[in-house]
What does this fold into?
Amino acid sequence: MAEAETQGKQVKPILPFLHISDNPDEKPYLAGSKCKSCGATYLGARMACSKCFSTEPMEDVKLSDKGELHVFSIVHQSAPGIPTPYVAAIVDLPEGVSVRCNIEGVEPDPKNLKFGMPVEMYTEIVHTDRDGNDIMAFKFRPAK
Amino acid sequence: MREVAMVGAGMIKFGRYPEKGVHELAAQAALLALQDADMTMKDVELLASGNLYQSSAMIGQRIMKEIGQTGIPVINVANACATGSTAYREAYMAVASGAYDTALAVGSEQMGKMGLLGGGGGGGGGGISPEGIVGSGLMPAVFGQAGVEHMRNYGTTEEQFAKIAVKNHKHSMHNPYSQYQVEMSLEDVMNARTIAWPNTLYMCCPTGDGAAAAVLTTMEKAKQLTTEPIKVATSTLTSDPYTERDLTMPDVNTLTKNASKLAYEDAGVGAEDLDLVELHDCFATAEMLHYENLGLCGEGEAGKLIDDKETYVGGRIPVNASGGLLSKGHPLGATGVANICEVYWHLKGQAGGRQVEGAKVGLAHVIGLGSACTIHILQK
Ligand SMILES: [Zn+2]
It folds into this structure.
């Protein structure tokens, strides 16, 4: 907490695998790890490979910001305080990783969403915490 | 491993019991099961108690303080929605292993109105939950997406999912233990408000309280107690194996397919031998997937199975004669035991107006997200 005060306001990711660089020119990206033994790729870090059990340290990979819509649901009722309706989706990335995410930029109606449609990631600040740090989230929208 | 038989079943009507403690609900069900087996606590050598939301409250021991403290070993179990059936498996393993002759399994839950929207989500950074901002990890969205995947793969329609809810609500009319007993038309189900597309309100299980219990003993003892013992042909428990999307989209299909393969092998029966199935219809979409996962029909044929009404009581393979979780309710820790009790009553010919005539083999399936899958096959 003292650190945040001395360093001023920081931008923090909503989930640990959203990588935010210290260099403001570098776009935030989803960080993955790839098993050197079998090639299985994960969102974020893993202690060992869940597929082949290899404990060799994994290769860090920068995941693509473009993917395809696998499936979705339109959530109309959620836990208290969560705005609805919204599109809750699973997006497949070309590295063989899937991501749970919101799809923005379309009215939340099944007719606006097509299986396999190309989507792209973007980030935005969704919250400011007690210490004044901005919380950044990633979202997907139909690719231009 | 020794042959194990089920000799007693008991449950209370699922609903809301705000004036009671959950251990009281559990103790009530335990007494009913013991009475059914013509036993008391003094005959029980091990108690396995399943409860999720109060998993640290020693519910198993508190049951015994209500109905008989004999100092026997008690195991308190938590395993998401498979909590009750995992407790049942602990009781089964205790008898099958030869360590104990008679064991009692009790499942209980008091959910209030918290329901399936409680919990989940997962921790985020900066004290903010990613739920609803970075997709959804809550059950309604998870099972909405799982249903949508079936649409994507096989062209399944919203109407076909809704037909499953129509069936289960119709079945509930004959089950006095069911939390809701309300018959509904296809229009009623489809016109209800959407919770998470494609599931509407009546395609989602209600929240509530409940308890169920079962007495297990050796086949040898069971034969002294009854001329028609019910054999527990398998008690199978699995967790989710590695599959590509499982870490972001729980793969309930591979989970259940793996468990059913093991269960059929272990029991020495196939899907074609089943007379009835109680499966985990937390949402109407889930039941559709499990028709295929349990091998009740071929891949991609689940929509046709419900279109042809084959899973109605009186159809080729009745599914959720109890009304399912959709009507009967889903008090998390109680569900797994209650599903097995339902199968037991059908095999005993005690299922009243919902009885599947001549039932000899039945299957009870439960999944807990996270994930766990149990399959029990009972045989007359
Ligand atoms: Zn590997």
Observations:
- The interface with chain A takes residues 117-118, 121, 124-128, 130-138, 140-141, 144-149, 152, 193-198, 242, 244-245, 247-249 of chain B (CB under 8 Å).
- The domain at 4-114+209-230 of chain B is CATH 3.40.47.10 (Peroxisomal Thiolase; Chain A, domain 1).
- Residues A 35, 37-38, 40, 49, 51-52, 54 surround zinc ion (CB under 6 Å).
